[in-house]
Amino acid sequence: MQSYDDVITSKGFLSDLKALNKTIAQSLTKAGLPVIINGNVCYSDKDEDFNKGTLSSLMEPKRKALVAMAQRSRCFVEVGIAGGHAVLLALHANPDLKAIGIDLAVQAKPSWPRVDIFVPAATEWLLKRFPDRFSFVKQDAIDGLREVASAPAFGPVDMIHLDGGKLNRMDELAAIWPALAERGYLMQGDYKNGNVRASTRAMIQCGLAREVPEEDLPPMRHRTFKVVEIGPSVLAQSVRLQDFRGKRVLLCTAHQDDELLFAGGLLSKIARKAQVHVTCFFRPMKGRADSDTRIAAMQRLCAEVGVSCTQYPFAVEAPYRRLRRYIAQDDTDGAAPVSLLRPLESHGLYPTLLETAISTLRLYEPDIVITHNPVGEYGHLEHIFLHRTMMEAARRANITTLLTFGAGQEHRAGLSVTYDTRRKKRLFKHYRPQWDGLKMYDFALDPERFVREPLFPT
């Protein structure tokens, strides 16, 4: 691995830097404009005739951080590519790195340098110089990131530089999240801006990001930037069992027995350490052998464990359309991605269910919410329905920590909870003899898993 000094003084980088700067300068001169561009990792903002000057000493910490990130990454996405200097430096720091630049290339304010002139010139030069390692998306930040996420040209993204607008950084992270590698780096440009600082704090609070361990790395923070680690593995590792101590925990289930099947062991472990409330949204289905006993069974179980509970009166049955007209899966094992045949918002129960979920979250003000997962554990449509509802409710209520049951999503990392299986087994007595989950579900006494979902506040 080359040192920063080796990269920045290499003949290859200096030759390409000179050629890129010449291209930018010629494009501006040809348009009858002064040679001025936005500030970047190499030059100060609006530094006239930057191409005749030296690299900015103020930006050296950012250049060092960028080189360190690039040398540990495979796919780099930059929002606000401007003159392309960060991409050029990153590609020279790591010959295996590939990069995608996103820029609208529109002069939004008269005071801005003429990005509409020099951005196209710079990106055209980069495309010719690195035809197999660079691509360009001429879009605004969010639409461009969504385009990249929908079809990642160079594989999972593990390095991001957000250096465009300052108001929507959380939305930008949300747009690229589906394309992220398990772990990567996010460099927040313009870190001295209050909105950028606030968005970084929110990312960390929501578990989407964490501070970068600085072992063997240059400083990852300066007044001009901050680097954090991001990705699904970062999110998965952000919750530990000890984090439940002293917290308000709200467990939201579709049916009576779900609290036992998916979280009975966890409830037993945290009941004395946290303030726990169980909320069941759907009443028992009519015509079952245990239709008249399930609510009382849940209440007895919660009382024995030492948590409070509430039963809501909703039911996903007539006069509403069947959920299978709204939700579909590609297979029947519960692990396939879910697709919507119709917007869930058009389901007759959804508006009431959503408002109730939001009101419940605002009433209990939980630190941690636990509910069903995106695939409904084993493909249960009502579980999926409640999951989608709770996710939207959590966003609207500004919940930062939402966990889903791990059953059916074993491919995702999460919190694994071991417990006294004998105690959980005894809890099934409350539902017997009408219902025996131990015989029906082979996972009933497995270690319980909980996966933290990415929440991007609205």
Helix content: 25-40%
In DSSP terms, counting alpha (H) and pi (I) runs of 4 or more, how many helices?
16
| CATH level 1 name of the largest domain | Alpha Beta
Strand portion: 15-25%
Major sheet attributes: 8 strands, mixed
How far apart the termini lie comes to 41 Å
**CA radius of gyration:** 26 Å
The CATH architecture of the largest domain would be: 3-Layer(aba) Sandwich
Q: Any idea what the CATH superfamily of the largest domain is called?
A: Vaccinia Virus protein VP39
Structural class: alpha/beta
- Describe the global form: elongated
Let me know the number of strands: 17
Unreliable residue stretches: none
Structure, explained:
- The chain has 458 residues and is an alpha/beta fold.
- It has two domains: 230 residues, Vaccinia Virus protein VP39 (Rossmann fold, 3-Layer(aba) Sandwich); 212 residues, LmbE-like (Rossmann fold, 3-Layer(aba) Sandwich), CATH 3.40.50.
- It is built from 16 helices and 17 strands.
- Strands 1, 2, 3, 4, 5, 6, 7 and 8 form an eight-stranded mixed β-sheet that branches. The protein has a seven-stranded mixed β-sheet with strand order 11-10-9-14-15-17-16, sandwiched between helices.
- The protein is elongated.
